[in-house]
Design a protein that fits this description.
The protein is mostly helical. Helix content is about 85%, strand content about 0%. The chain has helices at about 5-30, 35-60, 65-90. Helix 1 (about 5-30) packs antiparallel against helix 2 (about 35-60), helix 1 runs parallel beside helix 3 and helix 2 (about 35-60) packs antiparallel against helix 3. The radius of gyration is 15 Å and the shape is elongated. The N and C termini lie far apart (about 45 Å).
């Protein structure tokens, strides 16, 4: 294990964690319960378990430290992709106008 990998994982997971919690809170607040549940399920189960299984196989020693930030990052990208899709479907131009 390299210390740089551990430091990278600790720094990045915090940013994406905060974004994911904010997005889930927003979805729950405006009544998008299915979307909030999907994001939480991806974050806590599907992507996290997949990352814990795949990344250590690809990068022995460092992959386990990258599992959490990578699952948080992929969840954040998925959540914002959903917001962009929804805003286009509604005909709005900004994500905050949902």
């Amino acid at each position: 294990m390299k210390q740089e990998t551990i430091d990278f994982a600790n720094d990045k997971v915090t940013v994406f964690f905060i974004l994911n919690v904010a997005v889930v809170g927003y979805c729950q607040g405006v009544g998008l319960v299915r979307r909030a549940t999907l994001i939480v399920s991806l974050r806590g189960f599907a992507l996290l378990i997949s990352a814990f299984m795949l990344l250590p196989a690809w990068w022995p020693g460092q992959g386990i430290w990258l599992a959490m930030p990578s699952s948080e990052m992929l969840t954040t990208f998925f959540a914002f992709a959903c917001f962009l899709h929804r805003s286009r479907a509604l005909g709005t131009r900004c994500v905050g106008c949902l």
